[in-house]
Fold each of these.
Amino acid sequence: MISLDKLTKVYGHGDHRTVVLDDLDFSVAAKEIFAVVGPSGAGKSTLAQCVNLLERPTSGSVVVNGENLSTLNEAQLRVARGRIGTIFQSDGLFSRRTAAQNVALPLEYLGVTAAESRRRVAELLERVGLSDRAGHYPHQLSGGQRQRVGIARALALRPSVLLSDEATSGLDPQSTASIVTLLKELRDDLGLSILFITHEMDTVLQVADSAARLERGRIVESGIIVDLLQNPHSVLGRALQPARAHASAEPGEVTWLLGYASSHVPADWLIRMSTTLATPIRLLGASIESVNGATVGHASVGIHGAEPERIQSVAAQLGLSARLETSASRAGSIADANADVVPDSLERVA
Amino acid sequence: MSAATLALALPGSLRLGNEVPLDQIAALVFPALGDTLIMVGIVMAIVVVVGIPLGALIHNLGPEGLFENHALHTVLSWTVSVGRSLPFLILMAAIVPFTRFITGTNIGIAAAVVPMSIAGIAFFTRIVENSLRSVPTAFVRVAKASGASPLQIIRTAQLSEAVPSIIGGITINTIAMIEYSAIAGTIGAGGIGYVAVTYGYQRFDHAVMIATIVILVGTVALVQFAGDRLVRLTTPRIRTAASRGAPRTRAAETIDA
C-alpha cells in the first residue's frame, strides 16, 4: 500500500519557480495496479522520482505501509528505497554485468552474502522466466528479456510497492503483453501495489485496475478503469478507448455515438434498439472489448428518421450512452471533448 | 677497453666523432629502455591511484554530480587545468624546489617521477572525468533506487561502466608518459630518451638514433596493442562478438574516443 499525501514538487525560486507536481493525492492498495498517464511534460518522471525517493518532495509526503518516507534522512532513505522496487525504461541494465549480476545489484549494495545472493538471484530469474539467461549480457537479450531482468532486480529486496516508470515504452506489442502478464501475476502472487507510469493508453487498458490523468502537474481525473470507460463524460475514458474512423452515414441518416455506460448492456442491443425504434440501424464502426471482466466499448451507428429524445431514452434503457456525432468528437480530440452533447438522461444510467 | 665503452661509462665526457660500435648498441639501449619502463611504471601507478579518485570527485562535484558543489568544483577543475596548460619542460623546471623537497635531489629517476606524476595526474584526471561523463546518468538513478551508497554508486554505476574507456585513457596516458620521460631525460633521469638525445642528437650517432627510434616505436606499439586488447576484454559486447567468431570490428578503438 502506497499513498501520496498532498505531494508537491517545486523547482527554482522567485520568477523561475515552476510547480511540477501540484498537490497530488492518491493511493494504491495492495494487489492494485494504478496507472498514471499524461502527455510529456505533465510531470510523470518527476512523480516517479518522488515516489522512489530519488527526489525529495517540496511538501507533502509519500507513505508506504503507514510509514512516512519523506521525513527520513539520507541513510534511512537508502534502506527505505528497498521497500519500493523500480522498473526503469529499457536502458537500466548495467552493460558490463550479466543478467544474474544485474539482479544481484541491490543485494550487493545491502551486503548480502554471496551464497544467499546467488540463491535469491536464481529464485528471481526463475520467477521472471529467465533462468536459462543468467549468464547473458544485456546486449544478448531482447528488449522484453531485458525488462524481465529489470523486474527481477526491482523485486530483489522484496518490496511491497513496484514502480514502473515507462517500463513498456519502446517495447514491441508482444513484449509489452508479456510484461503486462508478468506484472499482473506478480501483483497477485506477491500482493504488490503497482504504480504504472506511462504515456501508452493501450497498455493502461491491458494492465491497470485504476488510472489517473496527470496534466500540468495536477491529477485532473482518476477512477477505476471500467468506470472511466463507462462514463461518457470521462476524457480519460475516451482517451483510453478512442473512437477510430468509421464508415460515413447515408444521406438522411444521423450518426450517433453509442457508448457502453453500464456493465449490463445486452449483447444484442443493436437488434433490440432497432426493433424498439422500428427503424433500421446501420453499424458504421465499433470497438467493443472486455476489460477487467466488464464489456466496454462504443459504436458509431447511422439512424434514419427517429426522434433524438427517443433514441436517447431507448439507448439509456439498454445501458448505453448516446450522443450525436459532432465534428469535434469525430476528430477524436481530447481537448474538444467537453463540448460534446451529453443528454441528461445518461446521468441516471452512469 | 675501447674508447666507446669509456664513453658509455662516462656519458658526460662527450667525445665527438666516436660512434658506439654496432655490437654495443644493445648494451647501451636496453638498460636505458629498462630505466624508461621503471620510470613510466612508477609514474603510471601514481597517476592511476590518484587520478581515478580525483577524476571521479571532480565529476561528481560538477553539475548533476552526486555531491554537486560549484565552488569546490571550480577550484579543483582550475587546479587541474593549470597542470594541463604548462608545457612539460616548463613544469619540470618550475617545480624543481618542490621536487628537491620531496626527493632530496633534482636529477635522476626519482626527480623525474615527481614532475611526470604531476603532469600525468592532471592529464589522466581529465580523461577519467571525460570517461565518466559518457556513462548514461540513468545508471546512477538505477543504483540509487536499488539502495546504493554514494561510494557504491561511484564504483558500480560510474567507474565500472567506464572501465573500457578508462583503460583506453590509461593507454593514451602511458604513451604520453613515455614521451615525457624523454624530456625528463634531459635532467639526467636516464632512459631511452636520454640516450636518443645525447648519442643520437648531440653526437650524430645515427646507429644509436635509429636503434632508439625502433625501440620507442616498438614499445609504444606494444602498449597500444595491450591497451586495445584489454579494452576488448572488458567490453562484453565486443568480447562476446569475437568469441562467437563474428567478424571483428574496429569498435574497440571507438570506445575510448
Amino acid sequence: MKEFFFNITWIIPVFPFLAFLIIILFTQGNKKLSHSLSIGSMVLSWLVGWGVVFSAIATPHLGEHPIHKSIPWFETGTTTFDIGYWIDPLMAIALFMVPFVCLMIFIYSVGYMGYGTDEVDPHYSRFFGYIALFATGMLGLVISENLLTLFMSWEIMGLCSYLLIGFWFEKNYADPNKITPRQAGLKAFLVTKIGDIFLVLGIIYLYSQAGTLSYADTLFNHEFLAHLAETPALPIFGGWSAASAIALLIFGGAVGKSAQFPLHVWLPDAMEGPTPVSALIHAATMVSAGVFLVARIFPLLNIVVELEQHNPTMGLIAFIGAFTAIFASIIALSQNDIKGVLAFSTISQLGYMIAALGIGAYVAATFHLITHAFFKALLFMGSGSVIIGTHHTQDMMQLGGLRKKMPKTFWTFLAGGLALSGFPLITAGFWSKDEILAHAWEEFMHYGTASWPFFVWLLLTIAAFLTAFYTARQISLTFLGKPRSDHAEHAHETPNTMTLPLIMLAFFAITLGWVGIPEEIVGQGNNWFHAFVGHEYDPTPLSIPVMLLSSGLAVGGLGLGWLVYGRKPLEAGQMDPLQKGMEKVRLGWLYKAMQKRFYFDEIYKAIFINGSIKLADIFYNFDYNWVINPIVNGVGAVTRGISNIFNKFDDKAIDGLVNFTGLSSVKLSELGGITDLKVVDGIVNGIADVTGWIGENVFRPIQTGKVQNYLLILLISMLAIIGIYLVY
Amino acid sequence: MVPVLVFAAISLVTLGGAIAVVTNKNILHSAYFLVLAFVGVASVYVLLEAPFIAVIQVLIYIGAIAILIIFAIMLTRRLMSKDMEERNQQWIWAALGALLLFGVLGWLVYNANWPVIEAAVPKEPITLMGEELLSTYVVPFEIASVLLLAALVGSILIGREKDQESRSAE
Amino acid sequence: MSIPLSWFLVLAAALFSIGLYGVLSRRNAIGILMGIELMLNAVNINLVAFWRYIDPVKMTGQIFALFVFTVAAAEVAVGLALVIAIYRNRDTVVVEEIDLLKE
C-alpha cells in the first residue's frame, strides 16, 4: 500500500495542471464545469497527497533514508538533468498542508467569486484555471527531487502570482497614488524577480561545485557538504566558505518570495487581488515556499555549524528574519484595511520562521510554517467573508458589530486570531511560536547576550506582544461594538461554500499544535512532530519561564488590545485611540510613518526609478545634444564647406569652358536640325508611337505596383525554366 | 514503427499549423498557429538528434520572433476588420504555383541519389560547435554580429516616432 | 535512422511551399512576413536533416542553420519596423494599397 502511494507521487501536480489546460483551452464558457474540474483535480491531489503523507509517516527512519525516484530528462554536454520526486519528512509535512489548504480555498472561491448570484465575476472560469496552475507550481515545488525542477515550480508560482494579483486588470482608480491591480501584479513579479536572480546565481554556483543539482547528490550527501564547507568561496565573498556563499545566494530568493526586508514591498500591494488569492498565495503557500527553500538547504547551513565554524549566513538570515518580524508588526498596528493588517502580519510571521532557521531551529520553523499556513489562510478567508458580507467594505474603521450578523465568520476568525497571537495551550500557534522562542532562549542562554540568539529572542518576544495587540485590535474593530457604516449595518452571513472551509480550517488551527507538544509535558518520546521531522537534531528542552512568558505576552497583548479597542468600542468617525495617544506624546509623525509603511515605496521610487530615469536622460543627452550629434553635424559641416569650394571652382572655371563648347555646338546643331526635322523625326515619331502603344496597352497593366504579383510571375517563370531544364 | 508514428504526428502538427497560418482570416490567430508550427519544427530537430538547435528554435523563433510579430500585429490592429477578405486576387495562381513547386521539389528529392552515411552524432556536439564557430567559421560569425548591429540600428531608426526633433529642443 | 532522409526533405519542401503560398496570397503585410518565416524554417529543416544524414561528424550543418536563425531574426526586426513605419505613414497594412511601384 505504501509502495503504491510512493510510486504515484509524481502524479500529484499533474492533476491540477491538466485541469488548468482544459479550463483555459476549452471550458472557459462553462462556469460550473470549470470550477468542478479545478476542485476535482485538487480533491484527487489531496487524496493522493495524504496517502503519500501517511505512508511516509508509517515509514520508519524516513529522515535518514529519504525515498526518491527520477527519470533522466535532458542532457547538455556531460550532465544529465533528471525530473523526479523526493519524499522526506519535510516534504511529507508540507504535503499534508498544501493540498488541503488549497482545496479549502478552491471551495471557498466558488462562493467568493459569486457563483450562482447576480454579481458573479465575469472571468470566473479563468480564475479557476489560474489557481489550478498555481497549485501545480506549489505541489511541484514540494515533491521536487532537484533544484532545477524546484526552480521551475518557483517560477510557475511567480507567473501565477502576477496573473492572479492582476486578475481584475480592468480596475482603475481615480486617485493616481493608489496602486491598480495591474501595477500591483507587475510590482510583485519584478520585486520577487530580484530575489530570483540571487536564487539562480546560488543554483549555478552549487552546480559548478557539484556537477549536478539533485538533492541526493548535493544537499543530502555528507561528504559533498563537508567539501563545500572547506572550500573557500569566490573572492567577492571575503573569507567565507563556499557552503555559506551558496546558502546566502539561495537565501536571496527566499527574501524575495517570502517578502522579507528589504524586498517586502510587494506583499501589501498584492492585496489588490481577490481575497482567495491573498489567502492561497500570500499567506499559506507561495510565501511559505521561501521558508521551505531555506529549510531544504538547511543541511548546507548546518554543515558549517557542525564543523564548528562561524556561519555568517545564518547570522544574516536570523537578523533579516527578526528585523522583518518586528518591523512588519509595528506597521500592522496602524493599518486600517482589513487585508492590510493580515498582509503585514504574514510578513512578520514569515520573519519568525526565517529567524528560527537562522538560529538553527529547523523543527520549530517547520512547525510554525505548517500551523501558520492554516490559521493565516483561515484569517484571510474570514476577512474575505467579511468583505463579501458587507458589500466590499475593507476599511475597518467602517465596520463593527459584525459578531451578531456573521456569527460563523466571527467564531472562526476568533479561532484564527487566537492562534496567530499564540493563545496558550489550546491553539496551534501557541505551540509552534513557543518552540521558536524556547529555542532562541536556549541558544541565548548558551551564548550570552552579545549574540544573534539574544537579538532574535528579544525582537521576536516584542513582536509576539505586538502581534497579539494588533490581532485584538482587528477583531474588536471588525466584530465588536456597533456598526459604523450602512454596509456594516446591513451585513449578512456568507454562503456555506465559504463558511464550511472556514470551520474546517479552524479545527486545524486549534488542534494541529498538539502534535508538537514538548516531551516534558506529554511524556518521553511522544513529541511526534519532533521525532518525525527533526530526528537528527536535539529536541528543544522545555523552558517553563519561556512558556509562561509567551502565554503572558499573548494574553497580555490580547487583553490590552481589547481594553483599548473592545471595551469601549469606537463610534463612527472616531479616531484610532493609538493614533490619538501617539499624537498626544508628540509621536504623531511616527504614527503617520507607520501608516505609510515607513515610506519604503517612496524611498525605492526615488532611488531606483527616478535614478534610472535620470541616468537614461544623461545617456540621451550624451547621444543627442552633447557629444555624438555635434560630432556628426561637425563632420557634415566640414564636408559641406569643402564641397562649396569645389562648387565655386566648378562655377567659374569649368562652366566657362562648358559654355563656350555649348555655343559652338548650338551653331552646328542648327544646321543638322533642319535635316532632323524633316526626315529623322518622321521615322522617330513613328517608332515612338508604336512603343507608346505597346507600353500603354501591354506593359503598363503588368506593372501593378504590387510586389506579390511580381513574386508570382517570378515563381512561374522559375518553374517554367526548371521544367524546360528537366525535360531536356 | 514508433519513430514513423512520431514523425507522422509531428508533421501533421507542423504542416497543419503552417496551413492554418496562411489561411486564417484573423491575423492574431495566424500568429498563434505560427507558434504551433515553430513548436513542430523544434520537435523535428529533436527527432534529428540536434537538441541544441531545437532549443535555439524555441528561444529565437518562439521567444523572440513570434513575440515580435504579435507586438506588431497589436500595434497595427485597427485596420484589419474581421470580415475583410484575407486572400488577394491572385491567390489561385499562387496556390497552383506553390503546388507545382512542391511537386517539382518532391520529384527532385525522390530521384536524387543522396550520399547518406550511417554515422553517429558526436559525443559533445556543443563543444565541437563552439570550437568550429570560433576557428573555422569565425569570419561569418563576426559578420553576423555586424549584421545584427545593423539590423538593430536600422529598425530603431525606421520605427521611431517622428517627433524626436521636438524632444531635443528641451 | 529508421526514417529515410527523403521524408524530412519532403516535409521541408511542403513547409516551404505553404510558406510561399502565404507570401504570394496574403493581404496583410505581417501575414506575408509569417510566410517568409515558414520558408526559412523549411530551409533550416533541410540543413539539419542533411547534417544528420550526410555528415554528422562535423557540425557544419548546424552552424549554417545557426546563421540562418540569426539572419531571420534580423530580417524580422527590420521588416516589422518597416511595416510599423508604413502603417504610421499610410494608415494601412494591406499590401495591395501600397503600390507606389505602379506606373
Amino acid sequence: MSSITVVPAGRPNVLSNTLTIARRNLLHIKATPEQLVEMSIQPLMFLVLFVYVFGGAIAGSSKEYLQFALPGILVQAVSFLPFTTALALNTDFQRGVIDRFRSLPIARSAVISGRIAADGVRILWSILIITGFSMILGFRFTGGTAGAFGAVVLVLAWGLVMCWPMAFIGITARSPESVNTWGFMIILPLTFASSAFANPDTMPGWLQAIVKANPVTSVIDASRGLMLGGPVAEPLTKAVVWMIALTALFAPLAIMRYRRRI
Amino acid sequence: MTSSAIEAEGLVRTFGKVRALDGIDLVAREGTVFGLLGPNGAGKTTAIRVLSTLLRPDAGRAVVGGYDVVREPAKVRGLIGLTGQYAAVDELLSGQDNLYMIGRLLGWRKADARARAAELLEAFDLSHAATKYVKQYSGGMRRRLDLAASLVGRPRLLYLDEPTTGLDPRSRIDLWGMIRTLVAEGTTVLLTTQYLEEADRLADEIVVIDHGKVIAAGTPQQLKMRIGGQVLQAQPADPADLVATEAILASFGDGENRPHNDGQLISIRINDRAALGQAVRQLDDAGIVVDDLSLRRPSLDEVFLAVTGHVAEEDELGDAAPADERRTA
C-alpha cells in the first residue's frame, strides 16, 4: 500500500454522490433477481388475474375491464414498489452500511436522494412494462399522446411521493419483519379501498366515504382521465394537493428520523 | 512524532438513564495504536461513535486531527476510516464494487477509484474474489474487505471497533499483521477490544473503561506492573491435590492476595520472588506432584480483574447504545 495521503479537496459533490448511491442501489437488482420479478412479473400477474378473473363479472367483458382497471393496477403496482426502499433502508441501518456512509466525507443527503433516484428508475421501468404489456392485451390510450404522457408522469410522481412515508417506516421500524407488517397494513387497504378495481358508486356508503377521501382514488381518477379522456381537472388538482401534502409531511419526518437514528 | 491525533476531555453521552460515557479523557499519539479496553456495555462503541462524528456528545469535547468533532465534523470525516463491529460492507455488491463505490463517493475519477480498489483487493488477499458478491464471502474475508473499505481514502486515523470479534484464530492473527503494517506506514489506530491479548499484542497505550469511566490507563507493561509483583501458578498432576495445593500457595499471598482456582490451575499474586523455591519444597514435602509450576508476569486478564473487579466478558452482543438495540449479529 502506498502511503501518500490524499485529502479530498473541497466540498462533496451532492449530484455525483447521489448518482453513485443510486447506481449502488440499482446494482442490487442484479444481485437479487427477485427484485426484478417484483418490479415486472408480479404486477403483470396481478393485471392478468384481475382482468380475466373479475373482468367479465365487473365490466361485462375482460376487454372493457382492462380499459377501466389498468390505471388502478398501475397505481397499485407503483404504490407497492417503495416497499423495497423501506426494506433496503432498514437493512442498511442494521448492517452498519449507513454508519459507513455517514463516516465518509460525503454529502449526507445523498444516501436518501440516491435512494429516491434509483426508485425513480425502478418505478418508471414498472410503468413501462405494465403499460406495454397491457397494450399487447388490447389496452388503448384513448386520451391522446399528451394524456398518456401526463399519466405516466403523474403515476411516476405518485410513486416517488410514496417513497417518503415508506422511507419513514423503513428507518423507524426495528426489523425488516416489522417493515413488512406496517407496509402491508398501510398500502393494501389504501390501494384497494379506492377506485382502482370497481366503481365506488357500487360500494356501501361508509366505504364510499373512505374511497372518496383516499388520495389513491384521486391519483387513479386523474390517471384514468388522462389515459382514456375524461374529467381530469378536479381529480388532478386533488392528487397534486395530496402529493404535496404527503411529501411535506413525510419527507421532513423521514429525514429527521434518518438524522436521529443511531 | 509526539503530537496527538485524538484528544478527548470529559466526554459524556447518555441514552435515557444510562450514562454510556461518563466523563472520558483520552489522548492518542500520532502513529501509535491506542487501545480502548473494556467489557460489553463499557462504552467503547459509544466512544468510537462520538470520535467518528456519528454521535454528538452531551458534554465534553473531542479533537481529532486538530478538528473539533462537533464543530467541524466534515473535516474529521476527511481524516478517519471506520471499521465497525459488524462488517459494514454491502452484501449485494461485489468486493470490487464496494471499494469502487467508496472511491467514487470520495470524488475520485473512475479510473482512480478502480485502481485503488484493485490495489486494496490485492493487499488484502481478496483479488481472487473481487467480482464475487460479498454475501458469498467468509467471515474473515468480509472483515478484510471492511478494513479495506475504511482505507480507500488513505485515512490518517483508523478506528477499529472490535475488529476481530467472532473471527477464528487464524483470521485474527492475519488481521493483526495488517494492522501492524498500517501503523508502520504512519497510520494512527484507535482500537477497541474486549480481548486482552489483542490489546496486549497491538496497543502502545491502553485505556481501560468500565461503566463509561476510565478506570486505568498506561502502556500494557505499566498496567501489568501496576497490580504489582508476579504470579505464581501450580498445576497438580492429580486434581485431588487441588485443595492442598491451594492451601500451600495461599501462604505466599502476604495475607492480602488470595489464590485463584480455575479447576486445574492454582494461581496467586505474590511479591516475594523467593516464593518459587519455597513452593517447590513445600509441595514436595506434601507429596504433591505438579505438571506445571511457574512464576510469570500477570496477564492483562489479571489486570482487568484487579481494576474492574470482574473478568472480561466474551459474549458477542453489541456494546453500549442501550437505547437502540438495532444490531442483530
Amino acid sequence: MTPSKTVKGSMSDQNGPNWNDLLVRVGSHQDKAAFGALFSHFAPLLKGFLLKGGGLDPEHAEELVQETMIKVWRKAPTYAPAQAAASTWMYTIARNTRIDWLRKHSKRDQQTDELVAEELFDENETSSPFTALIQTRNAGHIKTHLRELPQEQLQVLTLMYFQGKSGQEVADELNIPLGTVKSRVRLALQKLKLKLSPNGEDSNVVFAQ
Amino acid sequence: MINNHPTADMLTEYSTGALSLAPVISITTHLQFCDRCRESVASLNALGGALLGECEAAPISQQLLADTLDRLDAEPANVFEVEEPEQPFLDPKLEDQLPAYLHKFVGRKPLHWQSLSSSVSVAPISVGESNYELALHRLNAGGRTPAHDHKGMELTVVLKGSFSDENGMYHEGDFLIRRPGDVHRPAATQNQACICLSVLEAPIKLTGLKSVLNPFMKFNPS
C-alpha cells in the first residue's frame, strides 16, 4: 500500500475542491464562502439522496436538505477529517435528520419526546491513528470498486442506505428471501473490501422500526 | 477482550438507520467498549458517504442557499457549545458504573428498581420506544437468575462486572443476542455485582415456574 497516494485519491476529489478542507474551514472560521461551496455541491446530492429514498415530496426533501445543512454548520467544529470524509460525515447527519423526520411523522412512537437520533448514534468519538488509516484505506477501496458492483447488489445497498429499509423490508419489496438480501450485502461488502467484525454469524435477527 | 459482538447484519442496519431506538442504543453502548465494531460502523458509514457522493443530484431551488444563510445569521455564535443537559435523576453511585454515553438516557427520569428475585433487580429506562423494552439489570455478586427462555429477541450488553451461563463467561462490553427459544440461567461472578443493559422484544417466560412469578418478563414498553 502507498498511503500518501491513497490518502489524496480517496479522501478528496482529485480535480475538484477538497471538501474536507472546506468543512474544516466552516468549523474553524465560520467561513460562509466555504459553506456556500459545500452547499452548492452537497445540497443537490442530499436532495437526490432523500428523493430516491421515497416517501418525500420535493418540497419536504428541500426542507430536510436545509435542516441537514444547518446541522452541518453547527456541528462543523466537531468534524475531524482523519475520522471520516466530508461526504461520510454528511451522510450520517442526513441519515439522522431523516430518522427524526420519519419518527415525527409516523403514527407509531407518538410519545417519543425530545430524544433525537444524533444522541442515539453518538458519532463524536475519537479514533486512533490506526482507525484513521483504516478509514483512509476503506475510502479508497469503496471509490475504486463501487462502480464495479453487480446491479443486484447495488440495488439492495441503495434500498437500505437511501430508504433506511431493513433487510426484511428489502426482501419483501424485491420478493426475494431474506437470506438472499443478506448474501448480496455480504458479497458487496467483500467486493468493496470492507471488513466487518467477524462475528457475522447469520441469524434471523429482525429489528423493524 | 470482547468476544461477543453484534452481527454484521445488525451493524449494517444500524449504519443505514433501519433499527429502532432501543437496539440502536444497545449497539452504540457496545461501541463504547469495542474498537473493532466502531471501525466496522465507520466503514459502513463510509459506504453511505460514497453512495451519497455518487447519487444523482436533484436540482434545488435557487433561493435555498440564501434562505439557509439567513437562518444561520439569526443563530447565536458558537451554538455548538451547548451545555450538557442536566441529569437530575442520575444516581452518582450508578453513574460511575455506566459509560458516559448512557447517562443521558438513564438520568432523564427517575429509575425504579424492582426486585425480581433475591439477587436480581431491573429498572426500565424510558426512551419513548414502543417496540422494545430497554432496561438495566443488576445481578448481585454470586447471584443467579431463574432459568428462563425467550419468546422474543433479547440483546444484552455487559456494562460492569461479569456473568456466566451454560455457554460461557461474559465481560464488560460483550454484546449478547438471545433468540426466541433460547433457555439460559445466568449467574454473576462471586466477587462483583454485574450490571447489564438489556433490550427485550417480547415477553419471556420462566421455565419450570408459574408465569405469574416470572420476574423479568412483563413486557412493558415505556
